[in-house]
Design goal:
37% helix, alpha/beta, ten-stranded mixed beta sheet, UDP-N-acetylmuramoyl-L-alanine:D-glutamate ligase
């Protein structure tokens, strides 16, 4: 039996994904489908890991009627979870996408988490570390949570010998990196905010990955959407170039990438092989309508066509 991959989603949501015929400003669009699900980066990661046959457990806060609905969704997903009760209801996030892959995302800030509630969440996570091989810390901080909270969890995991993936933004990412997570997975926008500069060229992407690693992370996966990713580990930089696909819905592709990277690491792949698997999963998921994640078979097919280039 594989060791447990623990995911934390501190700011979960009911994800409402609406597909329309076309997205255009100042013109009407017609809704072709609407789908609600339990959302948040860590929840998505657990869904993908479970579908690939990995052992995972999701931890998240939940409160109010939306929290009860969130729990209902989770019960159908097939993997174990622990929900920490909070007083306020969960947020609803809205994603609107059209047939061409154009997407608009509208996220609520999320409920304010009180100090005692946050302490219970931290206890829930640290109480599971002895059974875990990885802790995936995923997504935004809700109001009321100090920006160093993720850093505390990275430190606690490292002290227990548990590897960490940090998928965050802003000051939570900055402080978390300083504690030396095993890997961080910023996308281009998150890296630009972290480094306070625009990233446009290949040379800038490579420099950014190396710079972020130098800030304290053991390894970095800089996710570049349809352009693939840059991986930095040790003294080595590699580029991962996916095949061209019709990106129908890129929502959640980054979550699939992070999840399958950890799944592959757990199966004893090297860091760079695992990044290639992750890029394949993100690319394969972007080809699917709505918020759906590629299967292992769909990912394997794309994996064969991901080009890997070592940067000399």
């Amino acid at each position: 039996m594989e060791a447990l991959i623990l995911t934390l989603t501190l700011n979960p949501a009911i994800d409402r994904t609406i597909t329309v015929d076309r997205l255009a400003f100042e013109d009407r669009a017609y809704i072709t489908s609407m789908h609600d699900s339990a959302g948040g980066r860590g929840i998505n990661a657990s869904c993908v890991i479970h579908s690939f046959g990995g052992e995972t457990m999701a931890i998240a806060p939940a409160g109010g009627k939306s929290g009860a609905r969130f729990e209902e969704f989770l019960r159908n997903y097939g993997f174990p979870f622990e929900l920490v009760p909070i007083r306020k209801p969960l947020r609803t996030n809205l994603a609107i996408t059209d047939k061409q892959g154009l997407t608009a995302k509208l996220n609520e800030m999320g409920p304010t988490i009180e100090k005692a509630e946050l302490a219970r969440i931290e206890k829930a996570v640290t109480g599971k570390l002895d059974t875990a091989s990885w802790l995936m810390i995923c997504g935004s901080l809700p109001p009321g949570v100090p920006s160093h909270f993720y850093a505390q969890l990275v430190k606690a995991a490292r002290q227990r010998g548990v590897k960490t993936l940090l998928d965050a933004d802003g000051e939570a990412l900055r402080h978390g990196i300083e504690e030396g997570p095993t890997v961080v997975t910023p996308n281009q926008s998150e890296a630009e905010r972290l480094l306070n500069r625009t990233l446009l060229t290949r040379a800038q992407f490579l420099e950014a990955a190396a710079t972020i690693q130098g800030m304290g992370a053991e390894s970095v996966i800089l996710s570049l959407g349809s352009r693939g990713a840059v991986g930095a580990s040790g003294e080595v930089l590699e580029e991962f170039l996916p095949p061209r696909v019709d990106a129908v819905c890129p929502i959640g592709a980054g979550d699939a990438m992070a999840a399958v990277f950890v799944w592959a690491m757990e199966r004893k792949h090297t860091f760079f092989e695992a990044v290639r698997w992750g890029v394949a999963a993100g690319t394969a998921s972007a080809r699917l309508h709505g918020l759906h994640f590629a299967s292992r078979a769909q990912t394997e097919e794309v994996y064969k066509h991901v080009e890997v280039r070592r940067v000399e």
